[in-house]
Amino acid sequence: MPPRRRREPVGVGDLLGRATRKFTRSGDSVLASVRAAWPEATGPGTVNHAYPIRRSRAGVVTVACADAVWAQELDARSEQIEALLTDLLDDPSAVAGLRFVVADHALPAPAPELPPRQPLPPPDPAVMRRAEDATRDIEDPALRDLVTRAAARALERDMRS
Predict the structure, then answer these.
(1) FRET label pair with 70: which of 9, 88, 99, 125, CA 20 to 30 Å apart?
(2) CATH number belonging to the domain at 24-106, selected among 3.30.300.180, 3.40.50.720, 1.20.1530.20, 3.10.20.340
(3) What angle do CA 64, 66, 68 make, to 5 degrees?
(4) Cα(first)–Cα(last) distance of the chain, in Å?
């Protein structure tokens, strides 16, 4: 029995690249392009209710919809959406057709809403007077008020540091 040859170490990235190539298709980059163009082709609010989930080898894009109403509405607009996607992607073979299915479990989770910002406390009256003195020559009252408040915050920040 001949002795086993030792291999050189292989990086984890190379191993992962080899493994993932087995499971991906060449059309996946086209699907990513379709997903990126989807909000512009259908409207920004549609992403929460309908989202492209797969593309067949023939180029038919399957869109998961939140319910049958969304599927029917988008199906009625499918020719328009397909034309917009073709224009946006600048590739006539990117989308050969659209297929709408009810699959609310396949929709991406909506982005979490950020908590509302708490208003800052009013500036110190002495700092506010200094800011008003610095901005008294501004003629527009709305602009003067805005610049005065910004100057007061800047003065407070400078005093703290």
Answers:
(1) 88
(2) 3.30.300.180
(3) 95
(4) 76
